[in-house]
Design brief:
Length: 329
């Protein structure tokens, strides 16, 4: 069974960036807490030069991960195959609707920080209120959907379900059959994923690990450290004390979940955007991360090419499954 889709984290810079920092053990430990410097108003208006929009940028390792079209193809094929498998047991299953986007548009959008001054002026580091409301509304609708019976849950997820889910099923299902038919060990999800040849929509764990590593490692690049120092000085001139942008990412006052917007948050966000835009901070950080990822690719070329071929096979399997119309009523 897939994990819960409920979003519990809304990070002030980029979800991917903060996750990478957390995974690598990096933090802003020892950095001064952000806040207005003595004698300066934290809420004064600032002239804002917006940073570049990185949502269209790429990184070298993305070559080895599915693009959005491939991911959607794999998702649709998995859903089709699961539906077909469940139908074979006399059960009807439909996937939940895809949740609407909230916050960054893709993995690159907020990777190096926010960049929309119009949004920051009213929302600080948070996504648009309408986006958040649509997302919460979709979650409520999903929670209100009819639930599968305990037996059907086991047919869907197999023996990998939590013990309490298995215990709730009837004796026949706990013994491994449903209406006399053997339940696959991993349920219909495993049947679908075995057919496609991927359990993660074509995503490579190696690529994910290297991508998570490149983000914090790039902060050690001399050019990045230098621009971080200039950003810190720029922020201090505006009345905010942060050692570097990662300290801003970690500021608990700006939250990891939806919260009331404050003048401090919007003024900090606007100062951050102005300093990033003036210094072209995202470009420097992206260039350093690009160099690192190119190095990783050279060091792991053979394994990455194997991963890429596996992705291509999975996408081919997905297209074949969809063309065959598995699971159509």
């Amino acid at each position: 069974m897939p994990p819960s889709r409920r979003r519990t984290t809304l990070l002030p810079a980029t979800a991917l960036a903060a996750v990478a920092l957390a995974a690598s053990g990096c933090s802003a430990g020892g950095a001064p807490a952000g806040g207005p410097a003595a004698g300066r108003s934290p809420y004064r208006a600032v002239a804002v030069e917006e940073p570049s929009d990185p949502s269209g940028w790429t990184l070298p390792l993305m070559t080895y991960q599915p693009d959005e079209e491939q991911r959607r193809t794999l998702v649709r094929a998995e859903q089709t195959l699961v539906r077909s498998c469940m139908k074979g047991f006399g059960l009807r299953w439909e996937p939940s609707a895809e949740l609407p986007v909230v916050g960054p548009r893709n993995a690159m959008d907020w990777r190096y920080g926010i960049h929309d001054a119009r949004l920051a002026a009213t929302r600080g580091f948070q996504p648009e209120a309408a986006q958040q409301e649509r997302y919460e509304r979709a979650l409520r609708a999903e929670d209100a959907e009819p639930r599968l019976s305990p037996d059907a849950e086991v047919v869907l997820g197999g023996s990998g379900l939590p013990p309490e889910a298995l215990a709730a099923a009837g004796p026949e299902v706990r013994a491994g059959t449903f209406h006399g038919r053997r339940i696959p060990e991993g349920g219909c999800f495993t049947v679908a994923r075995d057919r496609l040849g991927t359990s993660a929509y074509g995503s490579s764990q190696l690529v994910a690990r290297l991508s998570g590593r490149s983000f914090p490692e790039a902060t050690k690049d001399p050019a990045v450290k230098a621009v971080f120092g200039r950003w810190s000085a720029c922020m201090k001139a505006e009345g905010f004390t942060y050692a570097d942008p990662t300290a801003l990412f970690d500021d608990p006052r700006f939250g990891r979940e939806p919260h009331p917007v404050t003048p401090l948050e919007t003024s900090t966000a606007l100062a951050d955007i102005r300093c990033r835009g003036t210094l072209r901070l995202a470009e420097t950080w992206h260039a350093a991360e690009t160099r690192l990822q190119n190095r990783y690719i050279e060091e792991n070329k053979e394994r990455l090419e194997t991963e890429r071929r596996a992705l291509d096979r999975a996408v081919g399997n997905a297209r074949k499954a969809l063309a065959e119309g598995d699971g159509r009523s």
